[in-house]
Design a protein that fits this description.
alpha/beta, TIM Barrel, Elongation Factor Tu (Ef-tu), domain 3, 2 domains, eight-stranded parallel barrel
Length: 415
């Protein structure tokens, strides 16, 4: 079967959804205010989900809604009403891991496809066939699977059952994300969407017979980070993913910024399109993919379990911070008379050199020539000239030496 994988991008907000659509997503996955595994994300109100779905569908992009908590009894009462509301706004699929929520969704909104979340620990072909027999359209692989295992699954399941696989983003330290560390240490349950990410914390050792005696374990002067995995990145291995039979390439990151989403979506979009046109073109453009993805906020990269069990190089031992190359300044919302309107996200000033990041792959260097900020005074609004933009989320009109277009992203290279 000739497969052309879907590029599936996360969105934490309506703004990020629109960015994902503009920068090349085939589908976007989002979370509502309940039943999803990102309680700390901004998430979408029902009205925002409805607007996002309309925006995406008008541009030929699908939207999937996560409802992948492991439900307790207390969670079941509201699920029927929630799924009924979702049916009214028409997402393309629900992402579910809990069999109880699966049954509820099947009863309430039979017209919406169901995708089985990685949280359901999907690591063998009989599991995939089980979910297919229940009516699932797609199953997300456990991150512990190698490409060889995924190919074996594809060989033992119907062609109509889709395989979705994470190809980029943060790696959980626990089996398919089923982690109790946050719940144990902080009382916040990762399986209910409230993970505090204690796997990224700095740890020391206490010996059993010496309670209270603090013994730091040093790799270097910064300490040791025992559970801190590198981030996953498979942009250099798209042919292998396609050969294994993967239908959807999924990027992790429902708490990431518009800049992160734009960078990853644009890079994988070009890589997929290039490979589809010609494997030789894909290989020729590999330095560009590598350059772009290395500019993205990350904890360095690994290929995870795809080529066998990770070794010691998949772990970061000396820090828990991200590598960050660019600062996100804002997304162009409107252009007029040579200027552009945006909502400021980080400080920048007149005279600075910044980059205009475009969905088509170009990065255009430009100088900030003028900034006007929207000021409210005595019930009136007016645009006033200012030398810098230090106030987060301020509405701005900006004139640059090069003209941007709507949905371009403004960013600054960190030095």
């Amino acid at each position: 079967m000739d497969r052309h994988p879907e590029l599936l991008i996360p969105a934490s907000s309506l703004e990020v959804l629109k960015t994902a659509v503009a920068f090349g997503a085939d589908a976007v996955y989002i979370g509502g205010e309940a039943y999803g595994l990102r309680a700390k994300a901004k998430n979408f109100s029902m009205e925002e989900m409805a607007e996002g779905i309309v925006h995406a569908h008008e541009r030929g992009v699908k939207v999937y809604v996560t409802a992948n908590i492991l439900a307790h009894n207390r969670d079941l009462a509201g699920a029927e009403g929630y799924f009924r509301e979702l049916e009214g706004i028409g997402p393309d699929a629900l992402i579910i891991s809990d069999p109880g929520l699966f049954l509820t969704a099947r009863e309430v909104c039979p017209g919406i496809d169901i995708h089985i979340s990685t949280q359901a620990n999907n690591v063998n072909y009989r599991t995939f066939r089980f979910w297919h027999e229940q009516g699932a359209k797609r199953v997300v692989t456990g991150r512990e699977l190698s490409l060889q295992e995924i190919q074996e699954i594809r060989e033992h399941i119907p062609d109509t059952l889709e395989i979705e696989t994470f190809v980029h983003g943060a790696m959980c330290i626990s089996y398919s994300g089923r982690c109790l560390l946050s719940n144990y240490l902080t009382g916040r349950d990762a399986n209910q969407g409230a993970c505090t990410h204690p796997c990224r914390w700095k740890y020391a050792v206490v010996e059993e017979t010496r309670p209270g005696e603090y013994m730091p374990v040093y790799e270097n002067e910064r300490g040791t980070f025992l559970f801190n995995s590198r981030d996953l990145c498979m942009v250099e291995h798209i042919p292998d993913l396609i050969a294994a039979g993967v239908d959807s390439l999924k990027v992790e990151g429902r708490m990431k910024t518009a800049l992160y989403v734009a960078t990853v979506a644009r890079t994988y979009r070009k890589a997929l399109d290039d490979y589809r046109e010609s494997p030789a073109l894909y290989e020729a453009h590999m330095p560009w993919y590598q350059e772009q993805i290395l500019a993205c906020q990350s904890r360095c990269y690994t290929t995870g379990f795809f080529y066998g069990r990770p070794d010691e190089t998949a772990q970061i031992y000396d820090n828990s911070t991200y590598v960050k190359e660019y600062t996100y300044l804002g997304t162009v919302e409107e252009t007029k008379d040579g200027g552009c309107r945006l909502e400021q996200r980080n400080k920048f000033s007149v005279g600075e050199t910044i980059e205009i990041m475009k969905p088509d792959g170009r990065n255009v260097e430009a100088t900030v020539e003028e900034i006007r900020g929207l000021k409210e005074q005595e019930g009136e609004s007016r645009w006033e000239v200012q030398e810098s933009a230090p106030h987060a989320r301020q509405k701005l009109w900006v004139r640059l030496s090069r003209s941007p277009e709507k949905m371009d992203i403004l960013r600054r290279l960190d030095t």
